[in-house]
Amino acid sequence: MNIQEDKACPVIAKHLKIALVGQPNVGKSMLINSVSNAHLHVGNFSGVTVDKTEVLFDYKDYHFTVVDLPGTYAFTDYSIEERVTHKYLSGGGYDFIINVVDSTNLEKNLQLTSELMSMNKDIVIALNMSDEAKKEGIEIDAKYMSELLGIPCIKTSAVTKEGIEELLDAVVKVGSQTRQESKLIFSEAVEEEIARIVEYLQKHKHEAPNSYRNIAINLLKNNKKTYERLHDNPIWTELQPILIDAIKHIELHHDSDDIKEAFAEEYAAFNKGIITEVVKQVQTQEEKTVTQKIDDILIHPLFGIPIFLFLMWGLFQLTFEVGSIPMEWLEAFFGWLGDTIGATIANEDIRSLIVDGVIAGVGAVVLFVPNIIILFIGIALLESTGYMSRVAFLLDGFFHKFGLHGQSFIPLVTGFGCSIPAYMSARILKNDRDRLLTLFIIGFMSCGAKLPVYVLFAGAFFSAEMAGNVLFAIYIGGAFLGLIAAKILKLTAFKGADEPFVMEMPKYRLPSVKLIWHTVLTKTMMYLKKAGTFIAAASMLIWFLSNYPHNLELEEEFGTKIELASLAQEKKDLSNELAVKHLEQSYLGTIGKFSEPLFEPLGFDWRMSVALQTGLAAKEVVVSTLGVLYALGDEVDEESRTLVDAISKNISFASAVAFIVVIMIYLPCLAASIVFTREAGGIKYFFYLFAFTSILAYSLAFVAYNIALLL
Amino acid sequence: MKTLKDCKKNQKVRVLKLHAPKELKQRLISFGIMKEAILEVIEYAPAKSTIEVKIGKMHLALRAREAELIEVESI
């Protein structure tokens, strides 16, 4: 424990902060769940994109704070997870490390343990999944292992709850003792060099909080922090040549030009020794494991892909069929809420702001929650069972041709439903560049909200028999454009060496209901909280732009006209006309008029320009805007015959084609754009996306317009 | 030079040297693919674009392009 902290604050001296570290798929989260199960109180805090979970509980006389760090294979900075973990561990804001290892695969897991041993912190090893190891005939002598490593090793199992208390006891006990020097032993060549550096440090009576041996090892490993600490010290000038010589010697010994590779080999050799001493494999089973049997079917060269496509199809059926049921209820609820609250507000402007602005806008966000929940349950299932990595294995070959990653498939297909969960599911891509590239092309997969626009225009310009084919062509065309766009981006903006694809294919596991529930709940709450607050603000803005400035003259003029009109139809026509006039002179209308020349080369009039711009708020709005602007009233949908007629009369075929092209490509709706910005990790990416989609949409629409004119 | 890419399904090999650039080498090492490691080829994805290998008890997927950088010998 940190001595300074003890002095400064004796009251909370018994506070233990523990970093929970382990490789991926070792059952770390399961273990922490079973600990907190017994002692309760789980609190969450989320980072930018990767969540660290903090668990607080009391055990005996200690307050435990356990920080559950994302799984990492080694101290590299390849994925977001690894970066988060590495940064946290190097920061040193914790007292202990609990290193969770998979008892059934000790050799691989100990590789990370070796690196942790150079952190100069107390460690306790949890030999997790000991029940599974027992089943597989693996016997580990934990006591002997503790002696050999100088680190307490406790057998645990999150499933049977074995060893949880012992683990905590070990932490408490280690906390009350002075730290033992780790017993990691290297090859003769490395030990020789360590001894030389230690001797040098002793000679100069170098003052440091950690042992000379620890400093020597870290220097040899090129540890940045140790370098920084010693760099300004006068002994550095003498130490540096010694160090260079030492590293050369070690590299020569390992026939490598990479000191990290040399150390990895050192660790592997040491761990192999430990394994031979403490692990007994009772019987080596030659027969296939369950995982291998399942894999024979699921990643079969012929059947693998069809099986996957079928599973995805099932998931989407569920998402959009089952998800649409509560959607109707939600819609009705927000309608009712708007009416009820609206009735209590006397001031017309404030009522309109609350009902048409805030409630309608937030309602639109909440509407997607059922979809998101179902989709995330599905994705969590795919991920936690270990199937996701098989999908990447199967599809990587195809997607790699377009500069994408095998796992890009999931977010891209999700994009056909709704871009919001699609952007969120892109998190399964561990590498930044792969993820960004995927995020940029998700919009090309036409989302469900664009369907009404397509239906409207296809119905206006094609016969009923052809309309279906046209729709299909639009969707396929969009996806195809997306793949080409990915290739273009890969060759330009995301240029550079291909990211390597090296991925573990974990054992198949039965999913834990609790864990899935937890994941889905966290993600949904995050969506509601962040998108919800932004959306409320943004809908208020759109509401304001389309309602102001008020033109009292206009209102009075029409007010009297409407009063004078006798027929109901006449009244309706007049109020529609008022709505058009009003919208025309609103800020939004002014923008539409102002931007008309810009859209003229595409053959759009000011109404189409406005519809495109309101479509930035939500694609559903495009149809209703067109309805209002063509003076048909608010209550139109894509089936409305009159709107179809109005469109085929007022809009030329060429303009319609250009309009569809723009709808296919341009910026996704506001909610999706906000989620995109958050997932991409910065507002600058939003501007990139805006520029990229706008330029592409504009130029392709221009080409399409001119070709269609020739037809 | 024989590489992991040239192996057949169910073949067992020993790693001799990694010819990968620094970053990829670190990545491979973190998964235990280093000198002296024993690998077994388990499965190929369609068009042989991706290879599944077994190392110890872990199954790993890597692209053919990466497998090409791993020098091996049969055992």
Account of the 3D structure:
Helices cover 65% and strands 8% of the residues of chain A. Chain A is α/β, with parallel strands linked by helices. Chain A has 4 domains: 3-175, Rossmann fold (3-Layer(aba) Sandwich), CATH 3.40.50; 188-255, no CATH class; 304-494, no CATH class; 538-710, no CATH class. Chain A has a 7-stranded mixed beta sheet, sandwiched between helices. A two-stranded antiparallel sheet of chain A has the order 7-9. The radius of gyration of chain A is 32 Å and the shape is elongated. The termini of chain A are far apart. Mean pLDDT of chain A is 82; it is low at 1-12 and 38-49. The mean pLDDT of chain B is 89. Chain B has 2 helices and 5 strands; from the N terminus they run βαβββαβ. Chain B has one domain (4-74): SH3 type barrels, CATH 2.30.30.90. Chain B is globular, with a radius of gyration of 11 Å. The relative contact order of chain B is 0.33. A 5-stranded antiparallel beta sheet of chain B has the order 4-3-2-1-5. The chains are: A alpha/beta (711), B alpha+beta (75). The interface between A and B is large, with 41 and 38 residues.
